[in-house]
Amino acid sequence: MTVIAIVSAAGGAGRTTVCSALAVLLARRARQVFALELDAQNILGAYLGLDSLMPRGLVHALLDSRQAWHEESFRSVDGVMFVPYGALDATHIGASEAALAALPDWLASALADIDVQPGGAVLLDTARYPSQQAEQAMRAADLVLCVTTPDPAGCVALAAALHGMRRPGAVFYIVVNQIDPAHAMHRDALALLRARVGAAAILPQRLHRDAALPDSFARGAWVFDEAPHAQISHDLHGLAHWLDGWLSGRGGAG
């Protein structure tokens, strides 16, 4: 089993979009895929086809040991097994944060219960770093994909968080999302990011800003199905192809 944490140091970077698209595209490549949500926003299910937010999920097993964490799992039409985070009020959000801090290896232990075929993957959609959810995900991960936007705010946030995001035992790469090559600020920010983290840490598979993506999502469709020739469809397929190859390089059969 390979665990992949999708993280970011700034809000609005596109973690959930990247996580859900990769989960679906890997499943369509005949890989067994689990997608676990570690974010109180609780919206990954909407990306994977659920028509309502799920009231219970992973976090309720954290707060009540009598509940198995996988009791609230669902299978998408593409075959992705999905476990929502679950909805919480303000009081229970605080309790869950405290529980995660007190049990730093809780997620890693929970993931050991998953029966994943060789070549399968578990994708973790996390809350923004720093957070207890992101910490748990990165601690359990074999691969950390850090999603960032090529703007000053995103790059400054990433530069400040970079040391904490790079973990021993986990491969780390940056995915640049929502890039517009015609935008001078984006080109400058990307150059600064390369200088700060090194070009080798940034995947060449960039995700371009493309109106086809939100338009397709608003209609309840995947952009790579509804607009297969759009730039973002090409980009997402390219990122999935890279990840599929990376998984195969770890000895996982396709």
TrEMBL record:
Gene3D superfamilies assigned: P-loop containing nucleotide triphosphate hydrolases (3.40.50.300)
Domain of life: Bacteria
SUPFAM superfamilies the UniProt entry points to: P-loop containing nucleoside triphosphate hydrolases
Pfam family, one: CBP_BcsQ
Protein known as: Cellulose synthase operon protein YhjQ
